[in-house]
Amino acid sequence: MIKEVFETKSWVENYSTVIKLLLYNVTENVFLIKFSFTLNITTSKLTKTSHYTKKQQKLYDKIKQLKEVEKLSYRKISEVLEKLKYRSVRSGKILKPNYIFSIYKKGKIREVRINREFKDRISDMDFELVKK
């Protein structure tokens, strides 16, 4: 392709670099530059990320708030939720400390999975001069 550029009549001998020659031929509409590349985007945001029902999300948010903000133990969280009349979403049972731990642990794993970041990749970059 470069050979074609040098064989065209628009080539002037005063060019100090190949880049200047190419720019001249592109700006004078002798050639077009065709760019091609592959862009790989990976994300966890394309699928349904909210598999919790509203009640489950409300319960997890309350447990997270009591654990992280108020620094309560799982036993204390169980007592607080019992006083607030919270029950397990599926079976309606009292929330015991081991169940509180399970909800909190799995919720944190879920948050990490949903909010993870990926780097975008650009590869196979190429350009081509196309004669008009």
Overall description:
The chain is an alpha+beta fold and about 130 residues long. Helices cover about 45% and strands about 15% of the residues. The protein has a two-stranded antiparallel sheet with strand order 1-2. The longest helix is centred in the last third of the chain and has 19 residues, at about 95-115. The chain is rod-shaped. It starts with a helix and ends with a strand.
State the helix count: 5
Shape: rod-shaped
Tell me the structural class.
alpha+beta
Low-confidence stretches: 1-6
Q: Beta-strand level of the residues, as a percent range? A: 15-25%
N- to C-terminal separation?
13 Å
Query: Quick check: average pLDDT?
Result: 81
Strand line-up in the sheet with most strands: 1-2
Helix percent reads: 40-55%
Number of individual domains: 2
How many β-strands, per DSSP?
2
Largest sheet: 2 strands, antiparallel
Order of helices and strands: HHEHHHE
| Rg calculated over all Cα atoms | 31 Å
